[in-house]
């Protein structure tokens, strides 16, 4: 993998989540992009546990279905590992250093920058420009993850014919997607100089992400997402999980135990509050311009309503498909837009340079 920019070729982002593979294919169109492909393939339960793939063969079968759904246009892929598996550190370096010199300096100082043996990790870096308070210095973002976490995903993708150009980190992809669509959909959230709080509520986890000035300022990953609610509502696995989710998305909760729902929402808000508390303990700006909900949790009215009631800030459920005109054959996925935020960010990553 080397410096990567697809130019006018399509950009394909594939998000391998715990419950599904989600893919978006973009094509540059003037100063924006058109969505030319979307795919979603459900995964067997427990195929990915604690962000580790337990069966590469089963994942490859799901990816094969994803490729079939997309067609044959793009094989170059940007995918990601979880932020819980990656370590990012911002360091100051001389502004005179070019990419080769930065890479050499990182390797020389690897022991201080990366808490793993360099032979066991893949690392990447990006210059964030001149340091605002240190003349003659630039800020360099160094990101590292264990080689195994990257290689298992690459192996599964390449087994079905995809060519992995970049392995990104999920919170960086989310940052990229938010920076692309929020100024258009919710400009009031970017009018303020305060950070933006993003709550990524998936089936398996709750990730608290704070974004500010084009950077990920804070991230906290906590296991325990929607699966906690689904398992409590369906302890004997008598009901189809897809049907339960459809009822929750439609806010048809009359047949569900109010106690179970309230217990889940209470625990969820405790997780969110704890993440906010930890961020604020070291932050200079403790307030937020707003709260953005993404992923499966953002599709459930009961979660959106709970966060809106508990939080002191405006709350929005981010659907990137409100910014793009979907081809007619993908209209059925419109309501699922919050689940595709990371995939969008990965697809956008295709059009920016990086060093891997």
From TrEMBL:
SUPFAM superfamilies per UniProt: Actin-like ATPase domain
Spans through the membrane: none
Domain (SHS2) ranges: 11-178
GO biological processes: cell division
InterPro entries: ATPase_NBD (IPR043129), FtsA/MreB (IPR050696), PilM (IPR005883), SHS2_FtsA (IPR003494)
PANTHER family assigned: CELL DIVISION PROTEIN FTSA-RELATED, ETHANOLAMINE UTILIZATION PROTEIN EUTJ
Name of the protein this chain belongs to: SHS2 domain-containing protein
Gene source species: Pseudidiomarina sediminum
Species classification: Bacteria, Pseudomonadati, Pseudomonadota, Gammaproteobacteria, Alteromonadales
